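re the bet — no i am not wrong, look at it urself. input seq straight from the record:
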Amino acid sequence: MAFCCENSGIEAAEAARDTSARGTVEIVRVPCSGRVEMGLVLKCLENGAPGVLVLGCPVDSCKYLRGSSRALKRIDAVKKILRDAGVDENRVHMDFLSSVDSHKFSRIVQEMGERLATVNRHGVEGEHALAAGSERSAP
């Protein structure tokens, strides 16, 4: 899942020539990456998303001035929560691109896919991986 700023990430995604990159990720338009709350990212993971990308404007050219920097702080906090819980923090990633960075969009999506391929099904690191799989019960 990718939350894309409508001023940069969405435009880059739409301009991406590599349509396979667009097809591998569910794109969600947000007015600003700064609107993506920690709880939303965690809820996406809880609901089964293998990973979450947040794509915002470059920090120095955010239309809303501090949106990208706020989003980065939130994503860093989510990564800490995941680490503390023994979940692979690579399931969450923030990156910055301008509206003309379609090639960068494709690369970011591909790299995220590669990172997620190394994360086990539950996103749990090390010896906790097996335990997480066995503790899971039907709702």
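see?? Strands lie at 2-5, 27-30, 52-56, 92-96. told u. also The chain has one domain: 2-135. so pay up
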